[in-house]
Amino acid sequence: MEKLPKIGLPILIGIIVIIIVIAKSAVTIDSGEAGVLFRTFGEGVVIDEPPMGEGFHIVAPWNKVFVYETRRQEIFEKMKVLSSNGLDIQLDASAWYQPDEKNLGRLHQEIGENYLQRIILPTIRSAARSVVGRYTPEQLYSSKRDAIQKEIFEETKKIVDGQYIVLDEILVRDVTLPPTIKQAIERKLKQEQESLEYEFRLVTAEKEAQKVRIEAQGKADANRILSASLTDKILQDKGIDATNRLAESPNSKVVIIGSGESGMPIILGNQ
């Protein structure tokens, strides 16, 4: 009975050691992640093999696994930049990014896990300062927001693409100007709108006046043509026709005496 504890103690110690080794060797990589293996007694960071995928893995306890999130991620950044005339502009932007999974080993070896702070953010800030510095506050406030968003993205992507990082998009969410500048721009825009409205009213009035002139000219031309076509003979024939129709009416009593200068009867009255 006394020997059992002596035999069981090494077994218990062995079991504990095995559990510790397995715990140290077991690596679980969650969904949307990948692992970079570091061989302590080998070549170091493994770059010539695909990264470790999702699931359960057993590695030598003296090796290490660095886990990276490979899903698309978003970072928000507030920046103070200068416009073309030296005014402070606050830019609120966000970036969609993810590591290049095929080159995850190289990313870890050359840049490291904090690639966001080392590469992405400094590059976005530099590109934003460069791009915004080309525009006036008025352009940034009104018509050029889409343009600066595109230019910041393109300039950032040129650098980031060579750093084993995939940059999907940069969004400019807000541009904040100094209050006095913003108010001045709004007043100017309001005045321009009122000026455009006034010009529109003038153009409309001019078109209406032109329409009236055209109609009046048309009527005048028609009267002139009609007057030129009404000869004395035509007028006399029309008068005879009208007199005949009036005389044929059963309800009319016509008295004719004398004649006018044209020889037409003169109608004095009817009942």
What is the CATH-assigned architecture of the largest domain?
2-Layer Sandwich
Distance between the termini: 156 Å
| Strand element count | 10
Which fold does the CATH topology of the largest domain refer to? Tetrahydropterin Synthase, Chain A
Question: How many helices in DSSP terms?
Answer: 7
Largest sheet: 3 strands, antiparallel
Low-pLDDT runs: none
Report the portion of residues in β strands: 15-25%
Give helix and strand order, one letter per element, not per position: HEEEEEEEHHHHEHHEE
What helical percentage do the residues reach?
Answer: 40-55%
Membrane topology: Single-pass membrane protein
Protein name: Prohibitin family protein
Transmembrane segments: 7-27
Subcellular location: Membrane
